[in-house]
Structure formats: structure tokens, C-alpha cells
Amino acid sequence: MLTRRHIRVKVLQSLYAFNQGDHQDTEKQEKFLFYSINQMHELYVLLLQSMVSLREHAEGYLLKSQKKHLATEKEKNPSRNFIDNQLLHQITSHDGLRQLIQNKKLNYWKDDDEYIAILFNEMVKTDFYAEYLAIEKPSFKDDRDFVVQLYKKVIAPNEKLYEYLEDKRLTWLDDYPIVNTVLVKVLSKVNKDNIASKLIPDLYKNEEDRDFARDLLRKVLVNDEDLTAEIDGKTPNWDKERIADLDMIILKMGIAEFLYFPSIPVRASINEYLEIAKEYSTPKSSLFINGILDKMVKDFTESGKLNKIGRGLR
Q1: What's the gap between Cα 74 and its chain centre?
Q2: Which of 82, 127, 142, 235 could form a disulfide with 138 if both were Cys (CB 3.0 to 4.6 A apart)?
Q3: Contact 6, 179 (CB under 8 A)
Q4: pLDDT tens figures, 225-280
Q5: Which of 208, 241, 209 is nearest to 5 (CA)?
């Protein structure tokens, strides 16, 4: 589920929180990092469940409409495409999802169903919903394409849902874009044969990625003075106080990867932190960071400090 960039972002957020805190405890910060990462998985499950609840809400609405005293012909014989959506039914019956919801106590939508009603009202106003209902005997692909559109165009951009998630858990705000991307990717690729194994991806691709998160945080915290000294030496025209806090942390993380992670190519580290700077720091940060990291690489190479093993890693 998580890419290395996602992991770097979570470490960046943890380091920023550590620097802003009054009581700096390395062990507690490491626990916070993994707690924060685990929260992403719970957000993924909650958003996946929202579509199940949305289908259930639609079914209840349909039954009420049919019982109306002066129900229209359309209300008496409505399209059942959304209610019978094959992908949503498979998500509903997914044992792993139900188990996670029960174990993590994530069945929020039963108590907070007004947000599902908001999403439903937004959905029924869209053209793509009307077009989907008009399909005669939709295929699994039709059903899946609709679910992807529903998530991308109705659920993900909904401001009320965003505010709700902010109230529930503050860490989810930073996770929301990442989880949305993962969820759309998963929904686009699942089919009848692979949904059991693909619907809920593992949080980490492998144990190596989990170790990378822990080790990157530790290396930056433990070697903070040395990393700061390296930056001071390469920014003689910059007062340390003038460098944005996030930029300083990004530089330290990049240098830590140069010095303490021999299997990660230099260019991969630089490219990752440039993209992170563009998204999370100031407009000019990526140019500043690129210049400093490039200079670091040249100096480390000349002095023999660049710790890289294997061809092409420099």
C-alpha cells in the first residue's frame, strides 16, 4: 500500500512534530510514527466501507420510495443497477474487510449516517449516475467503472466528508490524498478473481520498507548535530534561522540517505525529496534543496564519505 515516498512523508511529519514538541522523546516519536502509519490503513478501510454504506442507504431509499402513496412509475420500478452493483456486493461480503471493521471498531457510518446521506444526495445529481442506471444488465466492468467514478467525483472531493475526518482524527488530513490515490488504484484493478486478496493491500510492501521507516527516523534523530553541521558548511550565505523548518528536515533526511543507506541510489533520494518539497514546502524550496543536495553529493564523493554499495548507486 505504502510507497517509499509515502514512508518518507510520514517520517518528515514525525520529525516536524518532534522538533515542534516541548518534550522530545525519541522512543515515543518512533511509536508515534508507526501509530500514524497504521492510521492510514484504518482510513483506507473506513473510506472503503463508506461505499458499502452508500449502497445500503440507496437500497433503503428505494424501498421507501416504492411504498409512497403516490409513487411515480419510476419510483415503483426503479433501476437496481447501483443496489445490485457486483463490485459493491463483493466488497460488502469481503471477510477481511468485515473483520477489520469489527476489530478496529471502525463502524462509524452507522452512527454518522448523515454523511452517507450527503454523499447519496450528491451522487444522484450527477450525470454519470443517470447514465449508469440506464445501462441494461451492466457487466462487472461497468459496475467497477462506476464505483471508481463515484469515488473520484463524489466521495474523495466532498468537503463535508473532509471536515468529518478532520474531527475524527487530525492525522487523517495529511493521509487523505495518499489513501485516495491508493484506493482508486485498487478499485481500478480488482476483478472477480483477485478481489479476495487485492481489496485490502498490506500496509508495507515488505518488512524492508517497515525497517526503512524506523531506520530513517532514527538516523536523522540520532545524528541531528552532525547533519546540521553538514548543512551549515554548505550554506555559508544562509542564516540557519532563515531556512524553513521543513526544508531543514528534508535536507537532513536526504543527507542521512546519502551517508547511512548504502543501497539507495543518490538520484533516487534527490528526486524523492524534490517532489516532497514541491508538495509540502514553499514554492522555491525544491530549487534550494536541489542545489544543496547536489553540492553535498559532489563533496561527499570527493571526500570518500558517500556510502553507496553497488553499480549505478551514485
Answers
A1: 40
A2: 142
A3: no
A4: 999 999 887 765 655 566 789 999 999 999 999 999 999 999 999 999 999 999 99
A5: 209
C-alpha cell at 283: 514554492
Angle between helices 207-222 and 4-20 (to 10 degrees): 30
Question: How many angstroms separate the CA atoms of 13 and 19, rounded?
Answer: 10
Confidence of residue 313 (pLDDT cuts 50, 70, 90): low
d(CA 120, CA 57): 8
Could you give the CA distance from residue 180 to residue 95 in angstroms, rounded to a whole number? Answer: 22
Locate all alpha helices (DSSP H) within the chain, ordered by sequence: 4-20, 26-66, 73-76, 86-92, 95-103, 113-124, 127-133, 140-150, 159-168, 172-189, 195-198, 207-222, 224-234, 245-260, 266-280, 285-303
pLDDT of residue 59: 94
CB-CB contact of 36 with 171 (8 Å): yes
240 secondary structure, DSSP code: G
Predicted model pTM: 0.85
**Residue 48 contacts residue 100 (beta carbons within 8 Å):** no
Nearest Cα to Cα of residue 231 among 216, 244, 215: 244
- Residue 268, C-beta contacts closer than 8 angstroms, at least 6 positions apart: none
The answer to whether the beta carbons of residues 217 and 193 sit under 8 Å apart is no
Cβ 41 vs Cβ 312: under 8 Å: no
Which tens digit of pLDDT belongs to each residue from 30-75?
A: 999 999 999 999 999 999 999 999 999 999 988 887 666 565 666 5
Instruction: List Cβ neighbours of 219 (8 Å cut-off, separation of 6 or more).
Output: 256, 260, 261
